Every structure is written in C-alpha cells, then in structure tokens.
Amino acid sequence: MSRFFSKPCTRRAFLRASSAAAVASVIPLTLMCHKPEENELSGLSSLRQAAADKGIEFGAAVEAVHLKDPDLYDAFVNECGLCVPEWSMKWASVRPDASRWSWDEADALVSFAENHAIKVRGHTLVWYAALPDWAKEKILTGQAERLMDEHIQQMMTHFQGRICSWDVVNEALEPQDNLEGCLRASPWLTALGPRYLDKAFFLAAQYDPMAQRVYNDYAVESNPVKANALIALLRGLKERGVPIDAVGLQAHLSVTRAFEPLQALCKAIKEMDLDLLITEMDVEDLSPFEGNAEQDRRVADTAKAFLDIVFSVMKPKQILTWGLSDRHTWLADPKWNGRNPLGLPVRPLPLDRACLRKPLWNILYEQFEAL
Ligand code: XIL
C-alpha cells in the first residue's frame, strides 16, 4: 500500500468512526448516513467524481456545525471526497488553555467524514496565528520545543491513521517583515530560529509517518518576492533532508491579481519532486458590483486562469476550496474582509448561498474533464 491512503475508509476506521459518531452529536445521526440523490441540477455527477476520475481528490473546508444544514450536508457529501476543518484543529480551538484538550468539534467532523468515505486533511500543526496567549507565553519563555513536540504528538496521536495529509507548517513567510529568507516574525521564529520548520517536519514524520507532510502558504501565485522566498525555503528543507512531501498553495485568489510567478513556482515544485496541493481556493471580487452574473463570471474566469497555469505544469494531488457554499465563507467576515466597503455579499465558492452550482463549479468540472 502506498505511504498515503489508497483506500478512503478501512473497516477499522469505520468502526472507530461509528463509535465516535456518538461524539458527533453536533450532526443529527439521521443526517450522518443520509445519501443524497445525485444532484440533478446540471445533470452532471459531482466535482468529487469528476476529480477522482482523473486522480485528484476534490474537497472543501467545513466544520461539523455547518453540516447541521441539510442542504449543505447533501451538497458536501455529493461534491466532496476530501475535507479540512476550517477551525477545529487549530491551537485556539483544540487547546483553549494549557490544562485541557478540546476534541469534540474536530472528532465530529472526522466521524462525519469517515461515515461517507471522505478523507480528512489536518490543519494546522504549527502556525503563527490562532495561538492562545498562554501558548505564546510558554513559547517565548523557553518551552517552545517541548510545547511543539507535545502538540504535534497529541494531535497526530489522537487522529492517528485518520488524517491523510497534515499542514505541518502554515504561512511561515511574510516579505513585509523584512527578515532573512522573508520569514514571518512569529513566536516560533523568535524562540527557535529558522530551524523551527525543520523541527516541525521531523516531529510530524515521527508521530504519524503515514500522513503526507505539507508546507502551506498564500499569495505565492501572485507575489514574485514571496514565490521566490518559497522556492528558496523548499530547497533549503530538501537540502537538509527535512521530511517534507508536498506544498500547499492556499490559492485565496482575487479577480484583480495576475499570476506572474505561478508557472515558474509550479515548475520548481515539480523539479524538487514535491507534490502540489491547492488547499484553500476561493476568489475574492471587490470590483464595482454589476450583479451576481457578472461577479460569478469574473470569479470563474480567475479560477480558470489560475488552474490553466497550474495544470500546464503538473496535476495537483488534492484541490480544496475554502468552503463549498457562499453561505459559509471567511471572506464575508468583516474582520477578514474589511476591504469590502459596501459589505456586499461575496460569491467566492463553487455553490451559491442556496447550495446551487455556479459558473465556478462548471469551471472546476470542465478543468477535471479536460485532464
Ligand atoms: C481562517 C478561517 O477561515 C476563519 O474563519 C478564522 O477566523 C481565521 O482563519 N489561511 C489559512 C486558514 O491557513 O487557516 C485561514 O482560515 C484563512 C487563511
């Protein structure tokens, strides 16, 4: 069996998931095993099937609480063969304080996924954000290595064998911080120096050797400085024998940003014999609003331009959108999307708020069909 999962759900995993289903009280059990009719809207099967036919796993970010909504539940099971928790495996969610671990939300999502042969990505083990204050304090007072080891061990052990791929380190680059290698100023860098990334990947290889180990970042498809910094970072990791398997391009795209460095970046990733994942795709459109149809067309055209370049170099192993329906998108959150002065509804995802397919869905489907 290959090092990564070739079978979506073993009997052992299903039995474990069934027992964990009790945990999944967040999702009504009547829904847990509900199999929706094939989506008749466009007569086409699903992104899950179209991608799988070409060896790509398609999925989306989601949380168990979102799946209490029957429309979204049906759409998710139909369209996605892969999922990633938007929040519930992050430090702030799993470790609200130093004395306890909070697993229920993440367990509910993993149980749901295993009940529908949906694979699960883990997000994320080491990140500068979503770090509780107590953790920052320990990291900055000499306990960084112990805390990193404990966290990666606990996370990977708790979900052992149930996570196909982990974002081991997320968003370690920030050119605006003007540090060596364009590294982002973070508690981890302050405490451990640049080799904190190496430590994280070696720990991940130690605690769940079967899970794919991914470095994940954003804006590298459009920012040449950050793209070159990523290439240098990856080359350094590979030269030091760091056990990294893949690169995640988050792909939070914008209709106004071009993809100048993208093709060279994908070629460099391929030359380093690393797998490529598209981990958090969505498309922001803050152009003057001219109606849903016009916005949906701009969003779809942007995604097509991005995927055309990526597919011209290599086929990603996984493609995920950061949410499946516009009903749940972080871009609608003023905290993250203060750039949307009119507070207009954003339409960055494959399904609209009614969970109906949009031009972006068609673009993804056509891209998979054309491979
Ligand atoms: C975001 C979530 O979508 C928000 O709901 C949360 O408040 C903050 O984090 N890159 C990442 C994701 O890797 O973890 C971020 O998710 C979006 C940017």
Structure, described:
The chain is α/β, with parallel strands linked by helices. It contains 13 helices and nine strands. The chain is globular and about 55 Å long. The model is unreliable at 4-9 and 33-41 (pLDDT under 50). It binds (3S,4R)-3-hydroxy-2-oxopiperidin-4-yl beta-D-xylopyranoside (XIL).
Structure summarized in a few sentences:
It is built from 13 helices and nine strands. The protein has 371 residues and is an alpha/beta fold. The protein is globular.
Pick out its properties.
371 residues; eight-stranded parallel β-barrel; 41% helix
How far apart the termini lie comes to 25 Å
What number is the mean pLDDT?
A: 90
Given the structure, what is the number of helices? 13
Order of helices and strands: HHHEHEHHEHEHHEHEEHEHEH
Major β-sheet profile: 8 strands, parallel, barrel
Secondary structure: number of strands: 9
Decide which structural class fits the backbone: alpha/beta
Kindly provide the radius of gyration, computed on alpha-carbon positions and rounded to a whole number of angstroms.
Answer: 20 Å
**Strand arrangement across the biggest beta sheet:** 1-2-3-4-5-6-8-9
| Unique ligands | (3S,4R)-3-hydroxy-2-oxopiperidin-4-yl beta-D-xylopyranoside
Strand content: 5-15%
Given as residue ranges, the uncertain stretches (5+ residues, pLDDT < 50) are 4-9, 33-41
**Mass-distribution shape:** globular
